[in-house]
Design goal:
It is found in: Mitochondrion inner membrane. The protein has 12 helices and no strands. With 328 residues, it is mainly alpha-helical.
Length: 328
């Protein structure tokens, strides 16, 4: 709080007014005042997100498998995979290539909601703040605040699709989207669909706070050198991906483990493997147990596929997004 207060204090009066007006607008339901209503960032964000998801999903599956393995007292205690390429080979060999795309349906559904809301809200909030401040110059603090707000809001709304994606990735292609949803809802209730929503929102806030402002900063500063070109978008995406992967992987490990664990409803429904049903009581307990049982490096399990996936994902996304902007 002190840090935030000092940052706000150091800004000029227009920035403070914009921040206060921005906050009050969120409280009354995203009232953007006089900002021009533009649907394009929402549609372009959703389409670009779905395109990027299709292109990088097998890498995401290996990341999920790596993050859940090695847990104490669980079905995933065995370290089956040595790394990303080994996981890709083993999954393809023993489960078939289809298993690499297990969970693609909820993943695309997630991006259709998460990506649409996240990127549309971010760019709309940026435009709103810029119009109120009457200053077209980029402001890093304002961009971070807009990104955090957009990331947390969109991830919380899309959390059920994320839970289904993780469950299907861990268990392979044995369940369809509908049967996976029915299984979660019947055994765990509606709350099961929001398993891990806390760390999910935290992860989304971290990624958005790093990824979007860094991309905008790099793109803005590269324009005088290489112009608003695909090369600019490629370089900016790559740099933004590295930063967000380093910052978000520990939270992502906790989020994935919480989403994969099952907490059954009271009333007689039991698990066929009760010792795996409930390992962690919450985010902090998951963090403590993971470090205690597996070491601090366990928080960076799946870092390589996270970065390898984030790089192409962001490159595909931002290039698609920028090209869609030029079309209409």
């Amino acid at each position: 709080m002190c840090l935030v207060s000092s940052l706000i204090y150091e800004k000029d009066e227009d920035d403070v007014n914009a921040l206060l007006y921005f906050s009050s607008g969120l409280v009354v339901g995203m009232g953007f005042g006089k900002v021009e209503k533009d649907w394009r960032p929402f549609v372009y964000g959703g389409l670009a997100s779905c395109t990027a998801e299709f292109g990088t999903f097998p890498i995401d599956t290996t990341k999920t498998r790596l993050q859940v393995q090695g847990q104490h007292n669980s079905l995933h205690a065995e370290l089956r995979y040595r790394g990303m390429t080994h996981a890709l080979a083993e999954i393809s060999k023993h489960e078939g290539y289809r298993a690499l795309y297990a969970g693609i349906a909820p993943a695309v559904l997630r991006q259709a909601t998460y990506g649409t809301i996240k990127f549309g809200t971010y760019y709309t909030l940026k435009k709103f703040v810029a119009q109120y401040r009457q200053d077209p110059k980029e402001d890093v603090l304002m961009n971070v605040l807009c990104a955090v707000t957009a990331g947390m809001l969109s991830s919380a709304i899309a959390n059920p699709t994320d839970v289904l994606k993780v469950r299907m990735q861990v268990h392979g292609h044995h369940h369809s989207l509908v049967s996976c949803f029915q299984d979660v809802y019947y055994h765990e209730g509606i709350g099961g669909l929001w398993r891990g929503v806390g760390p999910t929102a935290q992860r989304a806030a971290i990624i958005a706070a790093v990824e979007l402002p860094v991309y905008d900063f790099c793109k803005h500063n590269l324009i005088p050198k290489v112009g608003d070109t695909v090369a600019n978008h490629f370089i900016s995406s790559f740099i933004a991906s590295l930063g967000s992967a380093i910052a978000s992987t520990p939270t992502d490990v906790i989020r994935t483990r919480l989403m994969n664990q099952r907490r059954f409803k009271k009333g007689g429904i039991t698990s066929p493997t009760p010792h795996t049903a409930h390992l962690y009581t919450g985010s902090l307990d998951c963090l403590v147990q993971t470090v205690r049982n597996e070491g601090i490096t366990a928080l960076y399990k799946g870092f390589v596929p996270t970065w390898v996936r984030m790089g192409p994902w962001n490159i595909i996304f931002f290039i698609t997004y920028e090209q869609l902007k030029k079309i209409y």
